[in-house]
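Deviations from the work plan: none for this task. Representative record:
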Amino acid sequence: MIWHNLKFIIRRIFNEKFFYGINIFGLVIGIFSFLVLFVYVANEKSFDKHFTDYKNIYRVVSTPKGLESQAWARSLGIINKAAATIPKIEEATQFSYCKLGSIKINDISVKQKYIMSVDTSFINMFLVESEIGDLSEISNPNTAFISEDFAEKYFKDENPIGKFIEIEALQYLRDLGLYEIRGVVKNTNPKTHFNYQILISQKGALSKRYTSLPDRKTQWVYNYVKLKNDVSPKYIASNLLSYFNSSNLKQTRGPQDYTFNLIPIADIHLKADHRFELEESSSKINIELFIIISMVILVFSLLSFVSLTVAKLIKRSKELGLKKSFGASKIQLIGQILFEVLILCIISISVSLLFIEFIKPTINNFFEIDFQIYYSEPIVYISIIAVIAVCLVLTALFVSLFLYGKTSTIDILTERINFSGSMILKSLLVFQLTVDIILISCTLMVNKQIRFISDKSLGFDKENVVVLHLKDHSKDAAIFANELEKQSCIASVGFSAQHFGYPSQGLPLKGLGIDGTAELVFANYKYLQTMDIPLIKNWIIPSADTVSGMVVNEHLYKRLMEKHGSIEALNTFNLSPNVEPNQSGINIIGVVNDFNYQSAHEEIGDFAFFIGESQNRSRFIHIRIKPGNLNTSMKSIKEIWNIHYPDQEFNYFFIDEKIAQQYKSEIILSRILFVFSVLGILISILGIGALSLFISQQRTKEIGIRKVNGATVYEIIKMLNKDFISWIAIAFVIATPISWYAMDKWLQNFAYKTELSWWIFVLAGVLALGIALVTVSLQSWRAARRNPVEALRYE
Amino acid sequence: MIKIEKLTKVFRTEEVETYALNGVDVHVKGGEFVAVMGPSGCGKSTLLNIIGLLDNPTEGKYVFNGDDVSKLKEKNRTQFRKGNIGFIFQSFNLIDELSVYDNVELPLLYLKMKASERKERVEAVLKRMKIGHRTKHFPQQLSGGQQQRVAIARAVVANPKLILADEPTGNLDSKNGIEVMNLLSELNQEGATIVMVTHSERDAGFAHRTINMLDGEIIFEKSKE
């Protein structure tokens, strides 16, 4: 019987290539989207869970007071000492992480990714496995372990042990000297929030750095702790705080008050939004949205599939009736249909999986995600089985509901079928249309907001500014800047220690007599000109050689004026002896317009530039290029750079691109919405098409009679379309408040938001209407053009 | 074999009741060949459907081979039909996607017969119907007469006790029609009971007995000789 059915189905598929092609196509889109999104989400959620005891492992985050919103992934280097005093900590480790350094191997200097300096606790905590060598040697001075990939790349058939790597540059460090390779470790599990190619010892060249860590307020290392079972992370955090408060470190230069937090490692990849994160986290991608969209698309495509299958069954009802007359039972018939559905599902899933392999790089590029299917993991098979099961259950439900519920064999044989259940099908249609309208209006809205933000004036001119990252401060950058300014293509050059979006420093406002902390950026005076940030109040003494002092934004200035009344009063206050011990009097020399230093998510707060000409400000060299030939300008900048800094790589970025990155999550959201609206619409076209086929089939006789009595094709199409218009109207009424609500909620994420315009909803409704009418008309056109004699003959 | 007494079938819509059959009595003995005649709408197809257990009567008694089947549920009717009744339709009702062989094999599949036995039976019956050379063809590739012979082969392959034919020659020309009627007669002579609905006096001439119906009632019966 199975063989018979199989033969039957295959012949049927070949006989009706078009219908089955469409049906499988719809299902493939649905399964494809579902698998991509679902497997992606499953992968994302399983990050770092391969570590045994991952529930007990936490990252320690220390944040100076007032800067809680910009916590770093790196923290104060006190964890080893502190852990020794807290018995509930089972193990603690600190390590440095260099995303891109430079090494010399086999006498050639190369860029090298992912160099970590670690200790044995790291090896234990993160289950580093040795391929060759004894991992305890990591605690010997200047030893290194390399990953399998690294070994494969540089020592194909040779034994790497005993060979040397020269570390030329690590993050913030240079010329660490030779490291001896003592072994090979297994590659990092891809679902880990960090990645190592080379593990080097913390002893030897790095010893001094590590020993000094507990005495300085630098956040150079990443700190992790493994707690004993059932220990609350809050308890440990408060212990760390008391350790810090009683340590000598608190009294050294820098912020006095810190907060400590413990972040579960399983949360880092998905939720942590720390500066200097090890690997780019997915905190900006809305995982819940992925889940919802994947489910909606899957349900959509399954519904379309089932509608098409059921619509087709009416045409096939004679065959089924015939089989019944031979003694096939209801169960056997449903079994046959389900078997067919199963075959179609298997075909669709195979096509989807092939398609995924094929299109994977494109997906990863477009959504800026890292999507992989790990066929060794059960989740892949579970989701496939779930898809098949849902598909079968839905079909079984609909088939028995619509075709075999109340109809007898004789009804089927004589094609006298009444669709008592078509109300349900119609509500399904309304549901699909509703989701379509929601998807379309949200896509339009998100795009509108993104356009609004990127067009919004930030308070400075973001165009045509290139930023060079200077690491070598042994030479006076001003000489370099002067040279640049001589070029005809360059308008001006300014220095700052931070750039837009880069973590700023905190300036406690106590010294100015008010509460809170302002964001502080170190820059030179030229920077303000280069960034085109105009001074609205200017107390700079024109005769001064160098401009130095504080420039505050209008927001902060207003607050200061509320407190002090006038700038004179403020200056008197500043010069009086009530300032903090190691804070010299602040000299305010100007006020600038409010502008967005972070992103439009956040409202403008207190902000200050500390203007001066000292060397440390030249970390980021901002160059305003005259509009015109960008390539030539970049070329001449590079030439001058190579003359002044021959040893340093030419690293640069454009400020407007940096700003665009701030909206990465919104841009990706708009892409997701766009792609899935298109897919959703595509599938619902199939669904609507199936339904109109269904209805026109039911009304074949009516259409025939109307035509015999003189109805034109146009009139018939109009008649069939009329029903659909009312369903779209219902869908519109349901969809509008839902998407209004959703978008209103989403817009609350932004300090600066565009309006929810009425036209968005109207446009979405009109689009849905257009889509439905075109689909229905195509279908009804076929029905209406049929020869009425043919239609009536079946009676 | 068939005992039908006071059989009534009413089709109800919201406002009208139509009596398709109104107190019909029919008796068919095993081995008999009965033709049912009458104008369109007289109820002959309804009668055939009830005899074939495709439909339930509204009232009355139907005894098939000694079993009262008038109140059977759909599920049990299906069981009863299996292997006992073969159908022949005016429009042949062959399945387009299946070859001649597969079409004929279909009823045997639902009887859960072994593959070897199925093959034997299908080949024998196709040979008998003189279409043994076209087993691999599909219905569209056959002439009307050939298609109806396949349909007859399918109706008889399970050796049913009763063959029901609904205007078996209605879609055929006279030459092919006579051929089909000869086949039915042969089957009858070999012991099959046949009930046939027809409009054609010629076809009715092949039957032992003719039942004439009008407006849901039997108006007269006529036996040969």
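Chain B has seven helices and ten strands.
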